[in-house]
Design a protein that fits this description.
Blueprint: H1 2-10, H2 14-29, H3 37-59, H4 65-80, H5 87-112, H6 120-148, E1 153-154, H7 161-172, E2 181-182, H8 185-220
Antiparallel strand pairs: 1-2
Helix pairs in contact: 2-3, 2-6, 3-4, 3-5, 4-5, 5-6, 6-7, 6-8
Length: 221
């Protein structure tokens, strides 16, 4: 059973599972809010599934022992947030989530752009990378809010992570409705960086996938 499970995560189709878990977490669980105990528990459970899925990638590379440790610590801090909302536990868990999102994005994109033919699973891996960037910047702005306070943003009526996810995705896609706006230099700078990443990522991604596909076809002829 373990061997079969491990072989599954070695295959590209495992990227679909990560995409499903991440999508449910971002577009179903987080929008429910985390103020209530039920919302916190549901969010923790789905985040746990996402972390476990990511840890399977990390565990396949023995050189990434530190990343696995960070993921385990992240799970521990997320569990403490079920029972306490102290500032230091919130900030610590936010930092660990940022580290995990960055590590998971790196692992998934490395798998996506590795040598080999372009498949639908690699396209799904690129989508995972894009969504992880949105989640990363959402938690980064959430961290800025916890450090700087409500003055860091205008139009923020409900300082829950779902509001920052909404702001992050509208910034990443450069939709920019303007109902929530950064109000201090650091939050504005982060928003500018995210908007640039949101423009450059698809352009670079498409160019890279096209070049890999052309290279793969050339090698077959």
């Amino acid at each position: 059973m373990y061997k079969t499970f491990r072989q599954f995560w070695l295959q590209e189709r495992s990227l679909l599972i990560v995409l499903i878990i991440l999508s449910v977490h971002m577009f179903v669980i987080l929008p429910m809010g985390q103020h209530s105990s039920f919302g916190k528990i549901i969010s923790f459970v789905f985040y746990l599934f996402l972390l476990i899925a990511g840890m399977r990638y990390l565990a396949l590379n023995r050189r990434l022992t530190l990343a696995i440790i960070v993921s385990a610590i992240c799970i521990a801090f997320l569990s403490t947030r079920l029972f306490t909302d102290t500032l230091w536990t919130t900030i610590a868990s936010d930092v660990l989530i940022l580290m995990f999102c960055a590590l998971l994005a790196w692992i998934v994109l490395s798998k996506t752009f590795s040598e080999g033919p372009i498949t639908i699973y690699r396209i799904e891996g690129s989508i995972v990378g894009y969504l992880l960037m949105g989640l990363f910047f959402a938690n980064l702005q959430y961290l800025i809010f916890h450090i700087e306070g409500i003055a860091a943003f205008k139009g923020l009526d409900d300082p829950d992570v779902k509001e920052f996810l909404y702001f992050s995705l509208t910034t990443l896609t450069t939709v920019g409705y303007g109902d929530i706006t950064p109000a201090i230099p650091i939050s504005r700078s982060i928003a500018n960086v995210e908007a640039l990443v949101g423009q450059l990522y698809p352009a670079i991604l498409i160019a890279r996938l096209v070049s890999m596909e052309i290279s793969g076809r050339s090698s077959k002829t």
